[in-house]
Amino acid sequence: MRKNKKSTWLPVALFIYTTIMAVYFIPRNTEIGNAEKYVTIGVSYLIIALLWIVLRKQEKRREQEGQNMENKK
Length: 73
Known about the structure:
Elements: H1 6-25, H2 34-72
């Protein structure tokens, strides 16, 4: 059985959650302007993308460290 990587499932879950919340709340929110609504959603997606990049780099670094430990033995 293949293990799901954290760098995959966490950003996907956050992307789905953010999208659902945006679809649900954006039409109902009349206190802020349209530009602010879309900037907020865009920044949220940017943060999720940065999280995905950081988690991927972290997993690759851990894999390389594990391989280096095996090679030293």
